[in-house]
């Protein structure tokens, strides 16, 4: 069903050309669309899959979806572009500690409140949703059966070598934080008591509920003669820990559970497998060309990304001038 997507993306990006990187700063505009899809794949996902490492990632999404605007502004004022480049882990913690609540669901389209552009000497900047170019592609893919749009966002940044590059934090979809811990286990009952001590929690820091997003991870784009894209994404999916293993032992356990029901309600309850939140990884590394459309495939996830070369930002340049500079001799 999805084979046509790769062919379609190749056809619409044949104009992409090799890029030369001679200047000190190499600015690009990045557009990303991530979607989940139903799959008949019988692969067994591990129950001990570690979450994606987001500690050093730059968070462009929290400032848009946060509900505690005053506290968030305070956190943002404490981190400038240099801080995000040198101690992004600390900046991310500031954002989390100043944000009292997270939404239950993040809308797929994430963008700045109004059109915006990169500025000289600053770091990555999130653009408004209407500044993207993926409307037709998203419309085509989202109409496919079983597809659910998770995230569409566009940003501008100066691409750096791998050792200097900082990944962009990607998270979207449903927040499972009230039901599950990050390791997939159900939230313990005593954790619910912390909700009654919100004032104390604010004083001590983010000790209460932490968001557990349906989609979470990072996209790292770096420059080494060519552009490279590294994805470290996790899709979380609810399931039955024992039943999804699909082994003979599990079938026997199910039969024992049914027999136990006849022997007593308490024993039957004890034998019921607990719900579990699976973490399904999509970890890939690919060399790419600017201007081309790239499709990352996975049984449960799809990612479409385009990296568009732009001129070094200037305070007085418009986005059109950055992406499509005027020919020599014209203004």
Describe this entry's structure for a reader.
The protein is an alpha+beta fold and 331 residues long. The chain is 26% helix and 27% strand. The strands form 2 sheets. A 5-stranded antiparallel beta sheet has the order 3-4-1-10-9. Strands 2-5-6-7-8 form a 5-stranded antiparallel beta sheet, with no helix packed on it. β9 and β10 form a beta hairpin. The termini are far apart.
First-to-last CA distance? 47 Å
The main pleated sheet reads as:
5 strands, antiparallel
Label the structural class.
Answer: alpha+beta
The best one-word shape is: globular
Summarize the structure.
This protein is α+β, with helices and mostly antiparallel strands and 331 residues long. The chain has helices spanning 3-11, 62-65, 69-77, 81-86, 88-98, 135-142, 189-193, 198-204, 248-263, 265-271, 319-323, and strands spanning 27-37, 105-106, 125-126, 147-158, 168-175, 213-224, 226-240, 275-288, 293-297, 301-310.
Describe the SSE topology.
Layout: H1 3-11, E1 27-37, H2 62-65, H3 69-77, H4 81-86, H5 88-98, E2 105-106, E3 125-126, H6 135-142, E4 147-158, E5 168-175, H7 189-193, H8 198-204, E6 213-224, E7 226-240, H9 248-263, H10 265-271, E8 275-288, E9 293-297, E10 301-310, H11 319-323
Antiparallel strand pairs: 1-4, 1-10, 2-5, 3-4, 5-6, 6-7, 7-8, 9-10
Helix pairs in contact: 3-5, 9-10
């Amino acid at each position: 069903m999805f084979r046509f997507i790769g062919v379609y993306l190749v056809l619409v990006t044949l104009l992409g050309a090799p890029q030369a990187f001679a200047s000190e700063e190499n600015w690009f505009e990045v557009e990303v669309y991530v979607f989940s899809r139903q799959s008949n794949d019988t692969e067994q996902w591990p129950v001990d899959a570690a979450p994606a490492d987001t500690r050093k990632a730059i968070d462009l999404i929290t400032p848009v979806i946060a509900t505690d605007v005053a506290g968030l502004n305070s956190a943002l004022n404490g981190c400038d572009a240099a801080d995000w480049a040198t101690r992004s882990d600390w900046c991310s913690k500031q954002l989390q500690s100043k944000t009292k609540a997270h939404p239950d669901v993040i809308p797929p389209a994430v963008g700045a409140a109004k059109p915006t552009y990169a500025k000289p000497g600053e770091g990555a900047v999130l653009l408004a949703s209407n500044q993207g170019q993926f409307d037709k592609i998203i419309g085509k893919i989202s109409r496919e059966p079983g597809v659910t749009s998770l995230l569409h966002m566009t940003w501008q940044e100066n691409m750096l070598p791998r050792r200097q590059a900082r990944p962009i934090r990607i998270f979207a979809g449903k927040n499972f934080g009230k039901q599950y811990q990050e390791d997939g286990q159900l939230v313990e009952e005593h954790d619910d008591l912390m909700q009654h001590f919100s004032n104390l929690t604010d004083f001590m820091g983010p000790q209460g509920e932490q968001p557990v997003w349906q989609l979470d991870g990072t996209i790292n784009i770096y420059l080494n003669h060519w552009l490279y894209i590294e994805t470290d994404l996790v899709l979380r999916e609810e399931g039955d820990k024992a039943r999804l293993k699909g082994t003979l032992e599990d079938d026997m356990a199910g039969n024992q559970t049914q027999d136990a029901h006849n022997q007593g309600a308490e024993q039957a309850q004890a034998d019921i497998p607990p719900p579990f939140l699976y973490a399904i990884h999509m970890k890939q590394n690919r060399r790419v060309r600017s201007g081309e459309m790239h499709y990352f495939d996975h049984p449960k996830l799809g990612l479409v990304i385009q990296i568009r070369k732009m001129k070094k930002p200037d305070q007085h340049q418009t986005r059109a001038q950055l992406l499509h500079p005027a020919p020599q001799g014209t203004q």
